[in-house]
Amino acid sequence: MHISLDFTAPFNVGDKVVTAYPPGANIAMSGPAIPGHLQATIGAIKIIFELAPDNGLVVTQPTAEKSLTVEQLVYTLLPEPSLGLSAFMAECSMGENEAPKLFISEEEFLSASLHRSA
């Protein structure tokens, strides 16, 4: 059986992206002021496939080829060293209705933020 995957990740290791910070629902209560977004470099990408609950690929009928589906990408983001922040992860689901979490520029991030709050 041949397993194939036709998928191109929107960002690659080494790309600079803009994302919300702090990630998730964590809100900094003290310390230096941190903007609601920052630029970071992608340090690693974890690809999560749509698999069975036991993390296996289930094939139930004879087939010569089986395609895999990417369910989620988990990007490890490295903030600029001058900020003194630790690496963090951004989980990006590949569903059609999922809002993007990583952006090419600050302008794109701000534009998307305005559209979500409207």
Helices and strands in order:
Layout: E1 2-4, E2 16-20, E3 37-49, E4 65-67, E5 70-79, E6 88-93, E7 102-103, H1 106-117
Parallel strand pairs: 1-4
Antiparallel strand pairs: 2-3, 2-7, 3-5, 5-6
Keywords:
1 helix; two-stranded parallel ribbon; five-stranded antiparallel beta sheet; mainly beta
Architecture overview:
The chain contains one helix and seven strands. The chain has 118 residues and is mainly β. It has a domain of 69 residues. The strands form two sheets. The protein has a five-stranded antiparallel β-sheet. Strands 1-4 form a two-stranded parallel ribbon. A hairpin with an 8-residue loop joins β5 and β6. The model has no long low-confidence stretch (mean pLDDT 84).
Average pLDDT across residues? Answer: 84
Tell me, briefly, the overall form.
elongated
How many helical elements?
Answer: 1
Strand order of the largest sheet: 6-5-3-2-7
Residue runs with pLDDT of under 50 for 5 or more positions = none
Short description:
The chain has one helix at residues 106-117; strands spanning 2-4, 16-20, 37-49, 65-67, 70-79, 88-93, 102-103. The chain has 118 residues and is mainly β.
